[in-house]
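Why predict the complex rather than its parts? Because the way molecules touch one another can change local conformation, and only a joint prediction can capture that. The input here totals 1167 residues.
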Amino acid sequence: MATPHAPPPSSAAKQTELVWSSPACRQLIRNHSLRGTGVLAWGPAAGRQCYDLLVIGGGSGGLACAKEAAQLGKKVAVVDYVEPSPRGTRWGLGGTCVSVGCIPKLMHQAALLGGMIRDAPHYGWGVAQAPHSWATLADAVQNHVKSLNWGHRVQLQDRKVKYFNVKASFVDTHTVCGVSKGGEETLLSAEHIVIATGGRPRYPTHIEGALEYGITSDDLFWLKESPGKTLVVGASYVALECAGLLTGLGLDTTVMIRSVPLRAFDQQMASLVTEHMAGHGTRILRGCAPEKVEKLPGQQLRVTWVDLTSDRKDAGTFDTVLWAIGRVPETASLNLEKAGVHTNPVTGKILVDAQEATSVPHIYAIGDVAEGRPELTPTAIMAGRLLAQRLSGRTSDLMDYSSVPTTVFTPLEYGCVGLSEEAAVARHGEEHVEVYHAFYKPLEFTVPQRDASQCYIKMVCLREPPQLVLGLHFLGPNAGEVIQGFALGIKCGASYQQLMRTVGIHPTCAEEVAKLRISKRSGLDPTVTGC
Amino acid sequence: SIGKHQEGLVPSRRLGNVRGAAGPPSPPGRRARPPAPGAGRLSGAAREELRRRLLGLIEGHRVVIFSKTYCPHSTRVKELFSSLGVDCNILELDQVDEGASVQEALSEITSQRTVPSVFVNRVHVGGCDHTFQAHQSGLLQQLLQQDPAYDYDLIVIGGGSGGLSCAQEAAVLGRKVMVLDFVVPSPRGTAWGLGGTCVNVGCIPKKLMHQAALLGQALTDSRKFGWEYSQQVRHSWATMTEAIQSHIGSLSWSHRLALREKAVTYVNSYGEFVEHHKVKATNEKGQEALYTAAKFVIATGERPRYLGIPGDREYCVTSDDLFSLPYCPGETLVVGASYVALECAGFLAGLGLEVTVMVRSVLLRGFDQEMAEKVGASMQQLGVRFLRKFVPVEVQQLERGLPGRLKVVAKSTEGTETIEGIYNTVLLAIGRDSCTKKLGLEKIGVNVSEKTGKIPVNDEEQTSVPYVYAVGDVLEGKPQLTPVAVQAGKLLARRLFGGRSEKCDYVNVPTVVFTPLEYGCCGYSEEKAGEVYQAENLNVYHTLFWPLEWTVAGRDNNTCYAKIICNKLDNDRVIGFHVLGPNAGEITQGFAAAMKCGLTKQLLDDTIGIHPTCGEVFTTLEITKASGLDITQKGC
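Output of the joint prediction:
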């Protein structure tokens, strides 16, 4: 595949030394036109504009890439267009992160605060359990998101990045046609094009009523009224996070899981996560699949499902049905075939190499739309920034997609980095893997006598000294904060022995990580006792 | 080793050398010398095997002398023992094949590189000079006469975190162990059970009261997050302290249980040395008992200091009293600017009390001063009042009661100005004094620093008396933290009784101040880093940050702060880590682990953040202080 500094293929070879300057770009286009590439829309049409870099998609990755390139002196444009969800929800610049990143975390915080209100009387605060107002929360969260959207626009402006609120599709390998809401067309040409269109929630269109009556995470956080009694369908982290926070806000919530929760995560941790949720009021239907959604007189929805083991049918009534069964990459409307960009026919995602280049060397894809990449905001941001730096010759560093830490913001948070126990065993063999683990009780849980039976840590290591750490899994309060630093240690090639030489910070939950002494192999009780 | 620490006996040059080089960042002096030729070539396993054999030799014989046939000092020592009519086990290192390796291993065990190296009844007496001095002082005869049938293998004086961990580990290793623990009541009459400061009057209750204060903040936030309650929320001090005390009671109980399970003898008596290897234990009723042991560990910790002004002991409380105070302290003056002072002031304010902090000079001495000032500023935002550069000179009682009313007269440290204030409670948190004065240490010759009252030890926690060790807050120049004491105690027991060699590593110990906005740090402060490496060799990266949870709550967006200090000359290695923000404790722990593994700025840049957390801010630090660029916060 091409290196990032390689000139565009074929005709552009003679412009190599001029690559990245706008005159070169214009020259290139003239060449294209003269050679009759068959693009009728070209020519001196009004509205055609020319850039060093064009980013399609104004989410975390795209914006980071655009801003970085502009900072490095490039002429950059971003096109972004939010196709309204089937329920009509739309939002501003900033991409998915705000809707499946920041917002759920804020809603999760609201749910955690509910727990704190329950704790407070034990700590002496004279407060009775309070009802929750969805409208107040939604309003506050939406205001925050709108300020973020606005902030993104201002940042683009500050960095002289041109922003177009248009829907983009490829015309040829260097040109994109953007259509505005009003149907107005703009032609945009660029030396390099980055696709960062992300993904959108998948609808189970084969299920009767799914599209008409169901909503997704795109809509949930923009609801003006409380979703009420909710059925969440799916086993992804989005499904569990949504179900957890709805339960935490006091709503009657059910999750329907077809097979296993949090596939690709460590399965012992995943089952502790669901066990905790079940113990805290979320109803979990395992091994069930929905068949039909009907609207009842009034506003309620009747959902029919089948229990896959017994084949028995069952039904329930809900106010809201939320699909969280996965996400579809946003590639359909891009006209990728016009540019010759290849996708994986199964996933629909764009195939990329280590440089983030697609099958067309000067077209790149980053973030959730790229095949085989972790669907995480900070990953996309870093990939975007590194790409911009490579394109301007600042670095040749590639994005390292290994050991990416992540956290699932379920009521009891689950943070992890590195390999799951299953993956470690599959890769190294059971006899070469040592797992250290502990059930611990956060100090803050003691006074309100909260149940800590799922607060659990495990460290997956190689068995041979010095016992390189392969993975770390933490289930408990503030898991994201706990895991971040350890992720660095693991990136540094930390061994079990090194981590055990770290002095703990007392009294925290994180200190339990530095005190893991019981191996699974020993069969000893991993419950931490005493101080 | 005995050699290094017979300060009173030997004006030893070696002592100076070792001390001088023993600052945390530099390796111990003896390692700075090149290894002897042929030494240190053994593989890890072979070295461990050799070490075990040596320890076996030392354990198994009354007198062991490592010697060289041509060494005149060795000859003198051998002659001394023969004149005493004592049979010795002598290993001539120049006559055995692995002599150099033995010498290397010995130096790891004893910190002494030279021969002769003399052991009597498992105690390392030292080289020639020390052996003769021990002979003159009578110590050698005592060691030789030592009845191996001591009552215990180990007596630990002090049942706090360090002492208990050492005792339990020694018991696990099959030794007969006793713990003596006795809490002398505070001037206000407060006393508590087993477990020491951390459990009873330190980390545990303060973190729980901090949590109570955080919950108060959470209640305020929660309205913004849609939780609706109309009632005025009040706080009940009694409910909180009862809940906390009941948790502490259960911890204290579980400590006793753990000792019983491990067959450690626990005696609730005050221990004090009466002669070598012998302590007198006095219980609450004044009944005395004598116990002997082969080895001792002093882990008596510290207690709060008083001002020494009229009215302080009569009317003021300390952290020893606060956590079990049977009534709400009301309007409180906190005297001092230690972390204890600021933590207490913080949670009292968070519980809704009027709080004033009287500070003699700087906040959080020894911590990064930029961070300390930011901690102070964040507390001021919460309504804590600071009186800087004043010291109390008198406390008078105006009214008795629970709480009563006290008048405090204070004078300026800079001029003649005096001020008066009226408070319900005065909490002294001006520092802590080691409990070393009434231990009879002078009777057996354990050195205590005159200035600090602390006990100097070598890097194996050994005091100037070879069979007496010390761990925890009584140590001179070591971090005063529970986990450090726990680790030191455990490793000490393993070295003493388990044939292990690992020493407690006091470098890069992370710590957190649980003020309302928590402050976590690891490694150097900016000031200290500048002293050690020169400011021009440092890159200081920093930023303000806005926790996502604070946005909706409408809290200030430029209060939380992150800073790292990197050494340009060493690959931009991170040598200082500082964070001021919610959950700083949870954040700092992992970064401390990463620093142990050699964290560099490049690695921070290469690591992907976890979104949305506070910790992720460290993976995107771009602005150096030197650049002077704006670090205020905007978007996501």
